[in-house]
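Customer escalation, tier 2.

The customer says the design service returned an amino acid string that "doesn't look like it belongs to this structure." They asked us to rerun it and document both sides in this ticket. The original structure tokens are below, unchanged.
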């Protein structure tokens, strides 16, 4: 892990640990949602930024992780997260294995469309059958415990979510700097060359797809426990598009960029939905959010993560690092 990445994570950890002592309960709740978005964005970053696979069905794994919590909790009373969390991730990973095994036989726009089709299939299974409670969704009546202790207060759950975020950061940091991660980067840059030198690229991509699905399932688990409610919208293509925007907004190819993008997306969404700032125009918050994203894409080709290098270039006359400068 690079020194700059370690410093970023250390500062982020200290800042987020101090937030509950400085911010209101609303700020803690909002930041908890943002941390969950950050985990979700990191899951897709492994596919898009590291491996070069643009998946448009990531919400399916997120939703499966969320629904698994509710369905299993309904049968077991108040289960412990120590086994409910791995089960939720495993179910999301199994669906990712099924989707990946078939969709990775296609490339480019066909891969995007196939992943979208599988996500929509999962959406309609949840939406149109009694499994998912239809449009009304399902409430989570029994929140999971952690080693027998309740984590139902906003502060306790915030700290639990923060721990999950840094676990994912550490895991993906290890993966991207391992031989496996280097192989994924090689596949992104030139898959034909990787195959020519003996790499079974399909297996590498499938493993990355499953890991990404399991991390998305973790985010879905946290989202369901936080809100105590799930509905089919958690599997919709709108959410798949939103998480794709997050990592583009932050800057592809960087774990830090994925988190920054998730934070920026949640902040912009909150800003443009504020009636205190925009009055009645707040109901058109999608317009403001969309224009902001267009602005970022047009003027920040490396996303928000690339702003310091742009300033450095303008002030010192040095060249920007290339997109191949991955973490």
């Amino acid at each position: 892990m690079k020194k700059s990445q370690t410093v970023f994570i250390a500062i982020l950890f200290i800042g987020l640990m101090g937030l509950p002592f400085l911010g209101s309960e609303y700020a803690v709740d909002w930041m908890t949602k943002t941390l969950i978005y950050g985990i979700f964005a990191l899951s897709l970053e492994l596919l898009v930024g590291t491996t070069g696979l643009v998946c448009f069905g990531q919400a399916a794994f997120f939703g499966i992780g969320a629904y698994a919590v509710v369905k299993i909790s309904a049968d077991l009373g108040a289960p412990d997260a120590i086994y409910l969390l791995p089960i939720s991730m495993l179910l999301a990973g199994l669906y990712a294995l099924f989707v990946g095994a078939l969709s990775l036989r296609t490339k480019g726009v066909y891969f995007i469309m196939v992943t979208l089709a599988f996500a929509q299939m999962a959406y309609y299974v949840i939406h149109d059958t009694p499994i998912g409670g239809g449009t009304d969704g399902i409430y989570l009546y029994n929140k999971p415990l952690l080693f027998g202790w309740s984590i139902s207060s906003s502060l306790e759950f915030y700290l639990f979510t923060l721990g999950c975020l840094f676990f994912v950061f550490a895991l993906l940091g290890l993966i991207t700097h391992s031989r496996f991660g280097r192989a994924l980067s090689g596949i992104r840059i030139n898959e034909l060359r990787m195959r020519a030198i003996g790499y079974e690229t399909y297996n590498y991509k499938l493993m990355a797809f499953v890991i990404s699905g399991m991390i998305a399932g973790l985010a879905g688990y946290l989202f369901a426990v936080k809100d105590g409610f799930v509905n089919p919208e958690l599997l919709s293509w709108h959410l798949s598009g939103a998480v794709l925007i997050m990592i583009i907004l932050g800057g592809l190819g960087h774990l830090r960029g994925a988190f920054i993008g998730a934070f920026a997306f949640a902040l912009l969404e909150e800003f443009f939905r504020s009636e205190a700032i925009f009055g009645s125009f707040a109901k058109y918050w999608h317009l403001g959010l969309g224009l902001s994203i267009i602005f970022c894409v047009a003027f920040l080709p490396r996303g928000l993560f690339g702003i310091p290098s742009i300033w450095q270039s303008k002030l010192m006359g040095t060249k920007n690092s290339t997109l191949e400068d991955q973490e």
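Tier 2 assessment: The sequence is consistent with the input. The chain has 13 helices and four strands. The two ends are 8 Å apart (CA to CA). Sent an explanation to the customer and offered a walkthrough call.
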